[in-house]
Amino acid sequence: MDKPLRQIFFDTETTGIGRDHRILELGAVEAIDRQMTENTFHRLINPQRTIDEDAMKIHNITFEIIQDKPIFAEVVDDFIDYIKDAEIIIHNAPFDVGMINNEFNLLSKESEKNYGQLSDYCKITDSLEMARKIIKSGKRSLDALCDRFHIDRSERTVHSAVTDCKLLFHVYTALTSGQQELFIKKAKKKNKQQTLGPIEDYSHLKLPTVTVSEQELKLHEGFVEKYLTE
Question: Domains in the chain, start-ordered, CATH in brackets?
Answer without folding.
Answer: 6-183 (3.30.420.10)
